[in-house]
Amino acid sequence: MDGETALIFYYLKGNLNSYNALAGALEKYPDIKNIDVYFLSSEKELLQKISAISKKHRETIIGISFCTPQFLKIKDLINRVKKLAGETVFLAGGPHPAGAPLETLKLGFDFVISGEGEETLTELLSKINHDENNSDIKGLSYLDKNGEYVFTGRREAADINTFYPISHYFSKYGPIEITRGCPYACRYCQVSQLFGTTPRHRSIENILDCVKIMKRQDSTYFRFISPNAFSYGSEDGKRINNEKLENLLSDIRRLVGKSGKIFFGSFPSEVRPEHVNAHTVKMVKKYANNDNLIIGAQSGSQRMLDCAGREYDVATIYNAVDATRQAGLKAKVDFIFGLPGETDEDIASTLNVIQDLSRSGAKIHAHTFMPLPRTAFENETAGKIGPALKKELNRLCANGIIYGQWQQQEKIAAGIAAKQDNA
Length: 423
Hints:
By secondary structure, the protein is α/β, with parallel strands linked by helices. It has two domains: about 5-150, Rossmann fold, CATH 3.40.50; about 190-420, tm_1862 like domain (pyruvate-formate lyase- activating enzyme, Alpha-Beta Horseshoe).
């Protein structure tokens, strides 16, 4: 490595997909050979190496992507890294910084990428590398010399077909993003706010290119990222495009052969209940290898579904699980407890639905509501699991019906709220 500028990615497991996409965009950066890029995969490694890296280069940039549950850990980390880093530019991106840029800047970051990062990052690198003013870069937030907040303006939505969500140059591979943006704008979710309500689909050609690259690296497992896997190819993200969806899956299967393992509509993505039907699950059975679908139900109370803006009824959840089961797939169903305004009656309705679904063999993935920045529910109180509900959830966990990190999420949300109240 001999570049004048160092770019350090804090390459944590929970954020790999974001960094892989940035690495894919950096491949097309014309001055990439003048930048030394480091992927440091633990706090220990970052603290051990930051001083030596910053002394070795004229400019050092640390890029950290994080979501709201990581807020407190990042806040603590920044203070310690700053003591070791010397003259270093701290750059933040990801769901939480994009949703709360001023709060993130106050943690000690110099810049926040307020939206999609691929184009903003490469422009910022060019400006820093050539000692040029960065105030005309769209999508950046920072504090000026007087401490005043500056936002350079929203960047237009990126054409995701101009780069790959993986990187051969940096040997960074993982799930392939196939769709960005969501039309539903559910009130607890950041996706529509950060990436828009018009879905942008990666072309089949681009996706197949990624599969080919990974296959050459002896990858046999292929996973895909989407707000709703069955929306692929849909112009509005709501009406299923069966032809485009099947073309995608059949082309991937033809490329990877019988030995390749395709996972679609399962981790790390999910599907909406109204898009689960005999035809879509048949395609999964025909072309994919996953034995389950992750279905985003979120509540068994019609009132809460309406409050959250989900746009389907409780019967749709039952239909989705039935279609999944009849196809010979397992249903893993997401539910969120503690949504704003949730009553004992709403909880009872949800628990009744969970019991019904469990009798069909469904597994329940439980979550606790966490207010996320730039959502309709961002100023609502963090979800709390009352004693009676906690007892019931623990019983369901013991019986193998429920799994998930709902207990940790409740503690994290409460901890963040307490820190913000005392700020």
